[in-house]
Amino acid sequence: MKKHSLKDWLIAVRPWSFPASAMPVIVTLAYLYWAYGVIDWKNGLLALFGIIIFHASGNAWSDYFDFERGVDRADTFGVKTLTSGQFMPLEIRNLALGLMVPAVVIGLWLVVRTGLPLLWVGVCGAICSLLYPWLKYRAFGDFVIFVAYAILPTLGVSYITVGRFLPDLLLIIVPVGLITVAILHANNTRDIETDVRAKISTLAMKLGKKTDVFLYIFEVIFPFLWIVVCAVLGYFPWWSLLTMLGLLPAIANARAMLRLPKEGICAISNLDEKTAKLQLLFSLLFTVTFLI
Question: Which of 75, 149, 244, 273 has the highest Cβ tally under 10 A?
């Protein structure tokens, strides 16, 4: 096996995608602080660290199965750690399992600190991660991502920081979760042709490109409308309208997707990465509004 630098290992876990898991936790912490005043920051920071490691493990796990299944080849987009021969499949599989260990340890430590109800959140998250390759090949990927990187982290952070699950967190799950799912949807829309070749099924394939375009636009634009409505109704502070500063990048991403029918996949070749950057910007702005 080849020797790899730290940079090689970092690239292998796709760190550009980490906003999808980190930002829901950060936004939730800020919202809970705004709404309830006193929260357990130590538990919150442990959860943030744990979910990033968990996400890195899930990325490597998914890449391993994508390569073994023939989904990822030399001519596909995305990280080419396996298709280029830079890493052996066994290395990526072991990386995924190795990263899962500290993620589980952090999760169990939080269970000890807070209570057994959190264990069910962790078990659901682990199931989502382990079964994700199998589920995404059967068009359930978008649903799993919404559950694993929007619903579960938000509910989990609520429990470990204020001691209970709060239904009003749906207000932040929707906007942050939709943009998270948009990252995957952009990826799957771009990869339709290669996914057909690999004989798997994704939601993007089932909907067709025209519907895919409108779904992506909904996923990146609706969160801004949601925040405006929530601010008007008094659920969010008026400062939350600062998130509108992220609307221009969202529109730019939407316009890129609109070019798909005429220009083909070249128009959205790196739209998944741009959507992850949008998630980072949107969520940071959203976080700031609860701390002002």
Answer: 149
In contact, 258 and 209? CB cutoff 8 Å: no
- The separation between the first and the last C-alpha atoms of the chain, rounded to the nearest angstrom, is 51
**Which pLDDT tens digit goes with each residue over 212-265?**
999 999 999 999 999 999 999 999 999 999 999 999 999 999 999 999 999 988
Nearest to 150 by CA among 23, 278, 281: 23
Residues contacting residue 191 through CB under 8 Å, at least 6 positions apart: 76, 77, 202, 204
pLDDT of residue 106: 96
CB 94 within 8 A of CB 212: no
Please tell me the distance from the alpha carbon of residue 291 to that of residue 30, in angstroms, as a whole number. Answer: 6
SS3 (DSSP) at 198:
coil
Q: Phi then psi for 201, rounded to 5 degrees?
A: -125, 130
Contacts of 68 (CB under 8 A, 6+ apart): 89
Q: What would the DSSP string read from start to end of 30-50?
A: HHHHHHHS---HHHHHHHHHH
pLDDT of residue 11: 86
d(CA 26, CA 144): 20
DSSP state of 150: I
Maximum pairwise Cα distance, the chain = 59
- pTM over 0.85? The answer is yes
Q: Which of 286, 291, 292, 289 is nearest to 23 (CA)?
A: 286
Nearest to 77 by CA among 194, 174, 184, 165: 194
Closest CA to 20 of 168, 177, 236, 147: 177
